[in-house]
Every structure is written in structure tokens, then in C-alpha cells.
């Protein structure tokens, strides 16, 4: 099996949607969907490392949030955990991405996973105060600024271009799955069974397994200088800032990549927003207990998984831009549906308005929660329709030596967007209501789709209508 599949590929042509595309390969020779992807051992090891490290990260975040809640009982103190994770991304994201472009991606992944494991062990030796938790969160986030762009930039190094959509859909499904594993299964279960010490020990082990998986991968980049030379070159004479300027110039001149970068960050922002408003929506709008948010809105994660799987299996030849546009439109339609579920049920069962779901018979409660779950499933599917093809466009249309910088910009945008729901949307919901905020978000998504993607669709249509020379 080749460990450097991209080296033997033909030069890419230009697709009709404005991003590079390779000549089509006969499907009967390699198959379609996930089969060829899962036969690549380096990709499987990278995938295992992703699952282990992100599950560990999500479980750790859950444990730290619970610890701060236990120590302070303050929502503001809890929100500062997330803010602590955001600050390093804003300060280190772009320069970290530029450094990753100069370094061996494999060794960046190994060292960041080992460092995060040692960091959790060091935290166990402290008094585990609120300040120590904030410090752990910030240091862990600083390491993640190197890990995340290196991980995504490694995918095209272990996977032929024609299978990138399937590979990215697997990573997208894993991203959702690891949130469920970390926040819903591993974190709560280990806290109940073994307490914080047991949870942090498992997190350390998961980081170690991720590092071991990357160690088993072959060397991917053959012509890079030693790490200390690459670092000295990056820091000498403003070379690092020139690298950053090149990355931003690429974004300025490449409309398709710039548009997909913004739309991907907006979609992730909406995920953060719904996660922030979720418990309040379930309790204040629907009338359930806040603890039921995971069960009522959990089908959104299932929707992401199912849609990602479908795109990865059947979507190799689908137009990426139209997929993203369809996902945004589906989001703009399904988000408002969350606001009408209770009014519609109150029309059929007036007692719901007086006594809440407890007034409904068991089958009524199941139908009530089931409709919300169905809407959440559709919203999750819409998320996947945007995230999988948009991330694939970023990988396909960006040169290998720029990918770290481009994805670092994405992570900075994600961090900026994540602050908005944490510090702003929740307060706005307290003033005007959660349903009203959801409607505002839906209108924003619709406007974003029209302003961002219609020019790209018109450009693609014009290119398709031009006569062949």
C-alpha cells in the first residue's frame, strides 16, 4: 500500500464549481464510498487518533465544567471555562498554523497528544482550584492550536484526492460521535463511577493512545528540514509573519475558499448557539427538565452522522457549492420549526399550556418529544450538508504548504463565533425569548446563503454554459 498516494496523482483540472478537481477514475477499479478509504492503514491510524484525542478533549471539558459548577455554583464562572479555551485560539491560531506548515505534521500530532496527557497528569498534582482549571483549559487550548490544523492537513497526505470527500465525511461523523462519547457517555459515566480522578486518568490514557497511533504511521513528508531549523527559519527576519501574509493573500484572492471558510465557521457558530440555548429551550420553551436536553435534542447528532455517511458514500460527484447552499436553505427552514412545536401541540392539547408536558398522557409526551427530535434530526442533517462539502473544498482548493494557515484561520473564526453565543445570545434570549433568538438566527442563515453563495452559483452556471474551445 502506498504511503504517499498524492505523489502519483495527475495534475488537477478545474471543476465547474470553481475548485480544482482531478480526472475521474473508473469506479469499478477502486469502488466508491468508504471502502477505498478504510483500506488505507495510515488513514485508519489517523482516524483512531482523532477519535481518541477528541473524545478525551470533550470528556475533559465536561469534567472541568462540572468541577467549576461544583466549586462555584455560578453560571458566569462556568462560562469562563469556555472563554479560557477561546483566548489561546485568538492569540495563537494563525501563527500556530503557519508553524505547522513548516513542520512535520506527524510529529506535531505526536508531541501535542503527549503534551496534553502530561498536562492532565500535572493538573492532578495541583489543588484543582477554579484558577487551576482555567489554567489547564488555556494551556490545553494552546496545544490544540497546533494539533487541529496539523490533523486536518494530514488527511490529504494519506488519502488520494478522489476519496477526500469520503475521508472528510468520516472525520465529520467522528467529530459528532466524539462529542457524544465525551459529553454524554465517557464524561458523565466516569464521574459517577470513579470521580474526577478516574475521569482524568482515562483522558490521559486516551491522549496516550492517540499519540501511539500517530507513531505507527509512516513518515508522510520527505523533504522537510529538522524541526529546530524550521523553527529558527520561521522566527528569523519576520518569516513567520510573511507566511501569515501569504495565507491571508490567498484567502483574499480565492473567493471560493474564502466563502466556504466563512460559511463553515458560521455553521459551527450555530452549533455552539444551539448547544448554549439547548437546555433553556427544552425547559423554558418545551417545559421539560433541563437535564432532558441531551435526549430531546440528541437526534441532531444522529442527523449529522446519517447525512455525513450519505454524502461520503454517494456524494463524490455532487456539486460541492450546491450541497452547501442546500444545507443552508434547509437550516433556514428547519430552525423556525423549533419555535412552533409547542404552540401546535397546545392547539391540540390545551392542558399543555397550563401544566406542561406532565399533563399529557405517556403517548402524548412521546409524540411531543418525538416531533422535536425529528426537527433536530433534520437540523443536524442540514449542518452536515454544509460542513462536509465546505471542509472538502478547503482541502481540495488549498495548496499543501498553505493548509495549516487556512485551517488556523478557520479555528480562529470558530473561536470568535463561539464567544458570541456564550456571552451574548444567552443574555439576548433572556430579554426577548429563546424562540425569538432562533428566528433571528434562521433569518441570518437565509441572508448569508443568498449573499454568499448565489454569486458562486451564477459563476458556475456561466462557466458551464460557455462553449468548448
Report on this model:
With 469 residues, the protein is an all-alpha fold. The chain has 2 domains: 205 residues, MFS general substrate transporter like domains (Growth Hormone, Chain: A, Up-down Bundle), CATH 1.20.1250; 181 residues, Growth Hormone, Chain: A. It is built from 17 helices and 2 strands. Strands 1-2 form a two-stranded antiparallel ribbon. A hairpin with a 5-residue loop joins strand 1 and strand 2. Helix 3 packs across helix 7, helix 5 crosses helix 7 and helix 12 packs across helix 15. The protein is globular and about 70 Å long. The N terminus is likely disordered.
Specify the structural class: mainly alpha
Overall morphology: globular
Which sequence of strands runs across the widest sheet?
Answer: 1-2
Q: What is the name of the CATH topology of the largest domain?
A: Growth Hormone, Chain: A
Largest sheet: 2 strands, antiparallel
What share of residues are in beta strands?
under 5%
CATH homologous superfamily caption of the largest domain: MFS general substrate transporter like domains
On the 0 to 100 scale, the average pLDDT is 76
Uncertain segments are: 1-29
- The total beta strand count reads 2
User: In CATH's first tier, which class of the largest domain applies?
Assistant: Mainly Alpha
Number of structurally distinct domains: 2
Order of helices and strands: EEHHHHHHHHHHHHHHHHH
Radius of gyration: 23 Å
Task: Give the fraction of residues assigned to helices.
Answer: over 70%
